[in-house]
Amino acid sequence: MTESTETPIRTLAFLYAHTSNYKCIHCHKSILRKTLSIATLERKDKKQKKKTLEPINPIHFKCWTVPEDFTKKPLHVYRGYQALKDTDKTRMQRLYEAGKGASWSALEAADEEARQAEQDEADIAAFDQDKSRKQKKRKHNDEDNKDMTNALTGNQSSTNKKIKKKKETLQKKKKETSQKEVPTNPVAKLDEIHGKRFVDDFNKILEDFKQ
Ligand SMILES: [Zn+2]
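^ thats the input. predicted complex w/ zinc ion below
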């Protein structure tokens, strides 16, 4: 009986490239120094110590696809895993859980899709909220308008005069601040309806007369 020493034992290892001399066996581009890659450790037999091995066939983390037997061993036994940065450990765990055939680029694409869907939903919600806010504002303006109308159509009480005064000051201020601002102003509309300018003039004459 001869021992089957012909088939080498291969295991995966995680490593940060020491130099930028490594080329990815998947995309054939170089693996930048200090970036995460997955390589293979190849032993002639079990007697050969893993520590002496130089990893071969490096592949970019993002180019790598989880092979079938990867999840047969716990993640932490793979060489280099313990030395990974926490963020890379997390990424590797996610791939491990995703299982055979999973790749980081596919997971990222799925994430992006989910993010996009979430964003679209948020945009729609924001749009609806804005619309209802504008509607509320319009309703509010209408109510103001009604209040003013009630005040002006009633008898000339002192309250009415106060409101009129307020309105005048407001209008004056408005004129001073900006000429561009000519929006649909409920106050201006009321002037047209009730001929405020005429009433004002009349009141002024009346006051002058009293003095
Ligand atoms: Zn690659």
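Residues 24, 26-27, 29, 60, 63 surround zinc ion (CB under 6 Å).
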